Amino acid sequence: MSRQILFHMLPQDLKDLLDFVHERDPVVVTSYDADSSTIRSQEPDPNKKENLCLWNQSLVPTLTRMFIPESTVGPYYRVDDRLPLLELSTSLQTSWQGYPALLQGRIYGRFENQSTGLEHWFRAISAWIRKHYVRSPVNILRGYLAPFAREWYEKGGYLLPMFLPPDTIEWRSVIEIQHGLLSGRRG
């Protein structure tokens, strides 16, 4: 079983969330994949869409990466995703068809055969998000909208899923409901 909480956030929103996470628990943010086995704390890059590992040291006292000798990208090291860890997928400011857009992020956890500590930690983070963010105004995307992202959205930004959608009739209809017809804005 897995669970996730979806959101749109800007870098300041992410900082506020990570401040809460660090105040609550001894957490290290690191990458899942690396070119060495050494675990290093990593600051999220606001210019990249990243999938990062939230390592709660009270649940997993030591963390190592496994060596993957062969893959389509060559040899690398990877954190074992069967451990009680959470994945943080960041939002990213981008553009879609020439309009300012924000890709959706999430916190994701796998709870098969995990301790109740992971579930409790995930619930605490989810509760904090629900308390401090508003529900997404784009029902099809679900999730939550963080305070700085909400201000950005209200000034005309568009909310997208976790990927850049293709320019299709279906996706145009999802985008058009946010701030009126795109064709009317291109005028």
Write the layout of secondary structure elements.
Blueprint: E1 2-8, H1 11-24, E2 27-31, E3 33-34, E4 51-56, E5 65-68, E6 76-79, E7 86-89, E8 92-96, E9 99-103, E10 105-110, H2 116-132, E11 134-135, E12 144-145, H3 147-154, E13 158-159, H4 169-179, H5 182-186
Parallel strand pairs: 1-12, 9-13
Antiparallel strand pairs: 1-10, 2-4, 3-6, 4-7, 5-6, 7-10, 8-9, 11-12
Give the % helix.
25-40%
Question: What is the domain total for the residues?
Answer: 1
- Mean pLDDT over the full residue set: 90
Q: Determine the number of helices (DSSP H or I, runs of at least 4 residues).
A: 5
**End-to-end separation:** 48 Å
Which shape, going by the Cα principal axes?
globular
The secondary-structure element order is EHEEEEEEEEEHEEHEHH
Percent of sequence in beta strands: 25-35%
Taking the sheet with the most strands, its summary is: 7 strands, mixed
Total strands: 13
Primary descriptors:
187 residues, alpha+beta, seven-stranded mixed β-sheet, 5 helices, 13 strands, disordered C terminus
Question: Explain this structure to me?
Answer:
This protein is of the alpha+beta class. The chain contains 5 helices and 13 strands. The longest helix has 17 residues, at 116-132. 27% of the residues are buried. The protein is globular and about 50 Å long. It has one domain. Helix content is 29%, strand content 29%. The protein has a 7-stranded mixed sheet. The model is unreliable at 181-187 (pLDDT under 50). The protein has helices at residues 11-24, 116-132, 147-154, 169-179, 182-186; strands spanning 2-8, 27-31, 33-34, 51-56, 65-68, 76-79, 86-89, 92-96, 99-103, 105-110, 134-135, 144-145, 158-159. Strand 11 (134-135) and strand 12 form a beta hairpin.
